[in-house]
């Protein structure tokens, strides 16, 4: 009896002594299948899928686009470019998309992507924590928190590298577009410029001389303001590599209509993919009701054709009436009084 009891007790003690993973450790250890080289290899055209990028997979491969990537781009290299993983890799969620009109290259997080035009299938990455975000890697980028503004760097000609947390991007006032007054909130401006997402990330800014004027706009969910003469400015580089800012400025995809812009005085620069210009209802001519399809109105106005393109949308006050017409293959409708309007122009 004794000879049976002692081994049983020892075995039970050994079992209870095994290390137990905390919930956080369990989430970190969750392993998805390794991402294929390109999103085309998923064999999907709709929905999304989570996969794992190894450290070696993020180091090589060609990428076309910024934010929206051609489906023959390297998934993991694109994830590093987009800031969804760091050099050590991690989990990402790939969202499968249809045709996209233009893919603009840029340099971000040490990865240079290329320009390309219309491509039949594309993808982007979902926001959220899948075990691969910058917040999972303390010190990724520079690690030093960005100050509230850039006034302390005025007069310098050296790049400043710092880290924006997710909360840093959510508030603060910004003046300008691409070139910002140096009292603008750095992280909020970085979100407006598209160099980071709402999750934060590493940024590189370059102090610049003052300007005679700064034009506000609406981008990436951030509305910036106009301002006149100011003594100091800053711009962002697309990466933390210390290179001067390239000639980038990717336009976000246009919303379906302009209702969200009602009451704003900022101009929205956005991209109409080819599919978005094919359908939708439009009321007015030249000045359109703000619930009209933006991209369809742009075709009606002759600003773009059905292949899409980059446009500027300027909110206007409501009108007592709107006259429909047939232009450029699009028939718009008459309407009476409406509370908000917009007009569209070619991107300059």
From TrEMBL:
<keyword id="KW-0732">Signal</keyword>
<dbReference type="Pfam" id="PF03815">
    <property type="entry name" value="LCCL"/>
</dbReference>
<feature type="signal peptide">
    <location>
        <begin position="1"/>
        <end position="26"/>
    </location>
</feature>
<feature type="domain" description="LCCL">
    <location>
        <begin position="282"/>
        <end position="342"/>
    </location>
</feature>
<feature type="domain" description="LCCL">
    <location>
        <begin position="63"/>
        <end position="123"/>
    </location>
</feature>
<protein>
    <recommendedName>
        <fullName>LCCL domain-containing protein</fullName>
    </recommendedName>
</protein>
<feature type="region of interest" description="Disordered">
    <location>
        <begin position="314"/>
        <end position="348"/>
    </location>
</feature>
<dbReference type="InterPro" id="IPR004043">
    <property type="entry name" value="LCCL"/>
</dbReference>
<feature type="domain" description="LCCL">
    <location>
        <begin position="174"/>
        <end position="234"/>
    </location>
</feature>
<feature type="compositionally biased region" description="Low complexity">
    <location>
        <begin position="317"/>
        <end position="327"/>
    </location>
</feature>
<dbReference type="InterPro" id="IPR051957">
    <property type="entry name" value="CRISP-LCCL_domain"/>
</dbReference>
<dbReference type="InterPro" id="IPR036609">
    <property type="entry name" value="LCCL_sf"/>
</dbReference>
């Amino acid at each position: 009896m004794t000879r049976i009891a002692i081994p049983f007790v020892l075995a039970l003690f050994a079992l209870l002594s095994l290390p137990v993973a905390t919930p956080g450790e369990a989430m970190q250890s969750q392993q998805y299948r390794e991402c294929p080289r390109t999103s085309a290899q998923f064999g999907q055209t709709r929905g999304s899928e989570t996969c794992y990028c190894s450290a070696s997979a993020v180091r090589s491969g060609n990428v076309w686009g910024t934010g929206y990537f051609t489906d023959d781009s390297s998934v993991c290299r694109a994830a590093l470019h987009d800031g969804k993983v760091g050099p050590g890799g991690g989990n990402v969620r790939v969202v499968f998309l249809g045709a996209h009109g233009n893919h603009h290259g840029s340099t971000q997080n040490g990865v240079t992507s290329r320009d390309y035009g219309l491509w039949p299938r594309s993808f982007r990455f979902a926001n959220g924590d899948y075990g691969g975000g910058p917040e999972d890697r303390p010190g990724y980028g520079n690690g030093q928190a960005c100050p509230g503004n850039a006034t302390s760097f005025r007069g310098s000609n050296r790049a400043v590298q710092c880290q924006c947390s997710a909360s840093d991007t959510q508030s603060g006032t910004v003046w300008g577009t691409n070139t910002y007054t140096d009292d603008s909130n750095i992280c909020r401006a970085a979100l407006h410029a598209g160099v980071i997402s709402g999750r934060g990330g590493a940024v590189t800014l370059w102090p610049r001389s003052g300007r005679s004027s700064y034009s506000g706009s609406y981008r990436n969910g951030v509305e910036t303001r106009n301002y006149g003469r100011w003594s100091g400015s800053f711009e962002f580089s697309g990466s933390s590599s210390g290179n001067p800012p390239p000639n980038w400025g990717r336009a976000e995809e246009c919303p379906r209509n302009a209702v969200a812009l009602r009451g704003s005085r900022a101009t929205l620069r956005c991209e109409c993919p080819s599919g978005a210009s094919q359908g939708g209802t439009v009321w007015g001519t030249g000045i359109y009701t703000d619930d009209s399809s933006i991209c369809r109105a742009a075709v009606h106005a002759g600003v773009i054709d059905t292949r899409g393109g980059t446009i500027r949308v300027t909110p206007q006050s409501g009108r007592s009436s709107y006259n429909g017409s047939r232009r450029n293959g699009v028939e718009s409708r008459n309407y009476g009084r409406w509370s908000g309007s917009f007009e569209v122009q070619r991107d300059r």
